[in-house]
Amino acid sequence: METLRYSLHTTVAQCGCDGESHSTKDLALKRLNNWRQIAKKEKLFPQFRRTLDNWADRITNYFLKRTTSGIVEGINNKIKLIKRRAFGFRNFEHFRIRVMAAFF
Description:
This protein has helices at 2-14, 24-42, 46-60, 62-65, 70-85, 92-103. The protein is mainly alpha-helical.
């Protein structure tokens, strides 16, 4: 099981490192499918395999431009944190000012 988990990490890490930048999404999809077949044969990670089945195309889109949504996720997390602490703000305007102050 650990070997299979490690092989997924190496599979994803190696995509695009072989000089075939135009086909890295295809290569990543092919490698993910190979990994899924092994995991299915071994009857491991059933829920994760279903997630990969549903989201493989969107997950492998990362290999097109190598961008993530990490910055947006961080901003959303910070706003949620302010919102949790904002119990007692009188109105939305005070909340908005607090959010703006956090980022500027």
